[in-house]
Amino acid sequence: MNRRNVLGLFQGFGVELEYMIVSQDSLAVLPVADKLLHSVAGRMVNEVNRGPLRWSNELVLHVVELKTNGPAASLEGLDEIFSSQVGEVNRLLGMEGGMLMPGAMHPWMDPDRETCLWPHGDRSIYATYDRVFGCRGHGWSNLQSTHLNLPFADDGEFARLHAAIRLILPLLPAIAAASPVMDGRVNGHLDNRLEVYRLNQRRIPSIIGKIIPEAVFSEEAYRRDILEVMYRDIAPHDPEKILQEEWLNSRGAIARFERNTIEIRLLDIQECPAADLAIIRLIVATLKELADETWAAAGDQQAWHENFLFGLFLDVLQAGADAVIANPPFLAMFGIKQKEITAGGLWRALAQRLLPAHDPAWKPLEVIFDRGPLARRIVNALGSDSGRDQIAAVYRELCRCLREGVMFHG
């Protein structure tokens, strides 16, 4: 998606799935992403093309990312493509005694002791991040997510898409939270990944803001009010301007004007690609209605301040699907006429309204709606026993779900 081949709203979809690499025997993180990519390319590379997907490195050696090889024209069948290539990655990792583990955080990784940063090629970006922020922490080296990239053709489409995305961002943990265990214990947070993510750049707060992007709806305003502020604030720590690019922005959704997309970053990785793509299909269906002004005019959507949306995000982060939304004007943005509804109830209502009965997203979504997001199902499976052996048993079952492409019921 670049300016020479600009796509309009919902004419392409970029999906990125990040997975942990762990030992088949101990489930400890296994830093062999470089060996995986080398085994395919025959040399040390940062990424390899695998037909419809690409495999690439991340900041740390125990994470690999599978992503669409450019924008996919449709979401149809993407879950099967990802699942097939997960199988191929697992086959290759088996030669190193490893396998992929789903879930947005390793349940007992010690990042201070076990972090291995990517050591190959031009490491200037990673080295600068590490120098400025210190990347040996959960908020840097122990978090795996699903990213969704959506295109826009011009400023008008950017304004409609950005307004719509800002409204749904606070609601995403209600269906996507998948990180309830950290440091070997259940600590009450269903989405520990987002809890540590929102604090990992507090040294320079403008980089992440309030997680929910500011109410700016043109490229000029976005550059002035968000990007240039970040570049100014990090400049004393980055005199060589290594980090002063659009991807420095760590908000829950970031504009990538270099390729005319907005990237949504608040989704935890699920137990299998079918679950990730089901959530994405519901998100896209909702965003289409918002962008088309089906329930509310664009100006009304744009009027919501990030402070309110951030407060709602914190509520959902804490209570998940059970978070109560008691704000009729906000609910009206989604065509909901009730005075209050839970975040999970809102998503269920949207799915019932927008997804046809035969949509393949329904099978995974029914598990999420009936049993809660993956984090809730993990907690339920652990029950009163959250010791290492029981945690290992549950996460080994998650690895099986990923390997076989099935839902985890907990």
Can you walk through the features of this model?
With 410 residues, the chain is an alpha+beta fold. The protein has one domain: Creatine Kinase, Chain A, domain 2, CATH 3.30.590.20. It is built from 17 helices and 12 strands. The chain has helices at residues 33-41, 78-94, 111-114, 124-133, 138-141, 155-168, 173-176, 192-197, 219-234, 273-291, 298-302, 306-319, 328-332, 343-354, 362-371, 374-382, 388-404; strands at 14-23, 47-50, 53-57, 63-68, 98-101, 145-151, 181-182, 185-186, 253-256, 261-268, 324-325, 341-342. The strands form 3 sheets. Strands 1, 2, 3, 4, 5, 6, 9 and 10 form an 8-stranded antiparallel sheet that branches. Helix 2 (78-94) packs antiparallel against helix 10 (273-291) and helix 6 packs across helix 10.
Strand content: 5-15%
Number of helices: 17
Determine the CATH topology: Creatine Kinase, Chain A, domain 2
Main CATH class:
Alpha Beta
Shape: globular
Proportion of residues in helical segments: 40-55%
Briefly characterize the structure.
The protein is of the alpha+beta class.
List its traits.
single chain, 410 residues, alpha+beta, Creatine Kinase, Chain A, domain 2, 8-stranded antiparallel β-sheet, 17 helices, 43% helix, 14% strand, globular
List the helices and strands and how they pair.
Blueprint: E1 14-23, H1 33-41, E2 47-50, E3 53-57, E4 63-68, H2 78-94, E5 98-101, H3 111-114, H4 124-133, H5 138-141, E6 145-151, H6 155-168, H7 173-176, E7 181-182, E8 185-186, H8 192-197, H9 219-234, E9 253-256, E10 261-268, H10 273-291, H11 298-302, H12 306-319, E11 324-325, H13 328-332, E12 341-342, H14 343-354, H15 362-371, H16 374-382, H17 388-404
Antiparallel strand pairs: 1-4, 1-5, 1-6, 2-3, 3-4, 6-10, 7-8, 9-10, 11-12
